[in-house]
Amino acid sequence: MKTNHAGSESKTPAVALRRRTEEALRETNKYLENLFNCANAPIIVWDPEFRLTRVNHAFEKLTGRTSQGVIGKSLEILFPPEQVESSIAFIRKTPLGERWENVEIDILAADGTDRTVLWNSATLMAPDGKTPIATIAQGHDITERKEVEQKLKDTLESLRKAVSATIRVMASVVEARDPYTAGHQTRSADLARAIAAEMGWPQEQIEGIRIAGSIHDIGKLSTPAEILSKPTKLSEIEFSLIKEHAKRGYEILKDVESPWPLAEIVYQHHERMDGSGYPRNLKADDILMEARILAVADVVEAMASHRPYRSALGIEAALEEIEKNRGTLYDNTVADACLRLFRKKSFKLEET
Fold first, then answer.
1. Sign of CA dihedral 235, 239, 240, 245
2. CA atoms within 13 A on the CB side of 37
3. What is the CATH number of the domain that holds 99?
4. 218-260 tens-digit pLDDT
5. Which domain holds residue 44?
6. pTM for this one?
7. Residue 132 β-bridge partners
């Protein structure tokens, strides 16, 4: 009796192929597993019920938590108590299949500290392409970077406070020597700040121009007091000495550390758009916008207020000066903002 081996022989190639396929699949899975666990970035995976199903070694290292301690538990355990509600709400409202890109979410480490992490995510779908089976998120720890940024902010805030205190002292010294222009710097600064706000400037720049305005005449410390308070018209020589105050102000302020270009603003506040100003005859784009704003504020306040050698000319005369010379002496945008403040928004200079 002959044994028919045809059937078993015909199955042998199929069995071999299946075995090779299974082996290749195991190798692929092993490779992916190693890739998952050897990644330097923390990776977490959760299912549609928001239960953790996988975490890698980088996650364990970052948080001090073990995979055994978190797998199977709700995502809620990952977040600081005060952020659980907002973090879960964000995750739940993310549309199906939508990726995150650099989303900042804090996670809670085993020692109770918070780690700030930027996350990127992707949704894994079933073969039908419609059913989500998991979400995978990879993070980048930015805790140290955030701490450095906060320290920088704190340092800048301390610097601002120190600069502001120094500026107040400087302003009071200037006005103590020149009682006839007492309050001029403050009122000019207030108007310059209002113009900048009307132009839509950010608060940071508005604060800079306010500070510059409050000391824009600091260079007058080097001007003889008898000239500053002279009750009659200045001679040509006396006026030339007065004109030196912009340059002197720059020299006083140039080494003061500040987030704003205070020295240059002060240096330029008597420059004019057509180059007819002083001390450097700068034109148009060569003049800082802050200096253009301060120039208009300075002229308006000076004309509207009393001076040792003349009575106040009044606010209308000051506004007519700005309107007549907008685009020639004064920046168009700045002039228009100033005119709107007084004529449409009822801005008023503080009483002397």
1. positive
2. 7
3. 3.30.450.20
4. 898 888 878 887 878 888 898 888 899 999 999 999 988 888 9
5. 32-141
6. 0.61
7. 125
